[in-house]
Specification:
Length: about 260
């Protein structure tokens, strides 16, 4: 889990409470999200019911691509190619083409679509870039549900807050989840009209338990993060994975 104690006092109390909620929510969903990622990548271990498989065959490595097919069959049909504006207006006046080119959105958006079908939701975020590091003025990025979460607002039909894991310490053993392979060292927390860029301090080449927080303010009236959803419904506003329990059962049955 993310060490939230190091951020106490670095965030306002009301924001820290929301931050802790998102950390807990991310932790609750990671196990099942990792299971679906494993099925998509064909890294899942098949389930032995201890009934019909002789012991000498129980360590055989077998794989099925059915879970990946359930995702890719639809993902290949969803390809965002460009934005259009009704009438004679030009998107260049809004900087859309520049944003598209600077952030390689033709590459990132298909990946975001696939991630959304694997987990539902995926997340798209927009934030201020660090030009000193070679980033564009505006950074557009896609994130999967293993590394991002948010609080859904039923009235606004959007997110009230969001948390993104942007970087991890790969030298750390026993990290957040298998997919991150390390302890988080940079987080982006979106809440109300502020974005909190949280980075672990580094001392002598080693990351400490202390955090530095940079605050970016905006006047958007909403957080600049949107969920990518598959099959949302009133009881499940974040939707559901294409790798359903039925797909998982069929894969396990076929492997047995």
């Amino acid at each position: 889990m993310i060490d939230t104690a190091g951020l106490r006092g670095k965030l306002p109390d009301y924001a820290f409470d929301e931050f802790q909620f998102l950390v807990a929510q991310l932790g609750r969903t990671q196990v099942r999200n990792q299971v679906r990622a494993d099925f998509y990548d064909m890294h899942n271990r098949w389930e032995d019911l201890q009934v019909a498989i002789p012991p000498r065959f129980r360590n055989i490595q077998v794989a099925s691509g059915w879970a990946a097919k359930a995702v890719d069959h639809l993902a290949r049909r969803v390809r965002m190619e460009s934005f259009t504006l009704p009438g004679a207006g030009s998107l260049d006046a809004f900087g859309v083409q520049e944003l598209w080119d600077d952030n390689y959105m033709d590459v990132d958006l298909p990946q975001a679509t696939t991630s959304a079908f694997v987990h539902s939701p995926g997340f798209l975020a927009t934030m201020e870039g660090d030009t000193d590091l070679g980033e564009p003025d505006v950074v557009f990025s896609a994130h999967d549900a293993l590394h991002a979460t948010g609080r859904w607002n039923w009235s606004r039909r959007g997110l009230d807050s969001a948390l993104l894991i942007l970087d991890v310490d790969h030298s750390y053993e026993g990290g957040l989840v298998a997919a991150t392979s390390g302890e988080p060292i940079r987080l982006m927390f979106f809440h109300e009209d502020r974005v909190y860029d949280c980075r672990r301090d580094r001392v002598g080449g080693v990351y400490s338990q202390f955090w530095s927080v940079e605050v970016q303010e905006h006047a958007l009236g909403r957080i600049p993060v949107e969920p990518l959803l598959y099959h949302p419904r009133t009881s499940r506003p974040f939707g559901g994975s294409r790798i359903t329990r039925g797909v998982i059962y069929l894969v396990n049955a076929a492997l047995r």
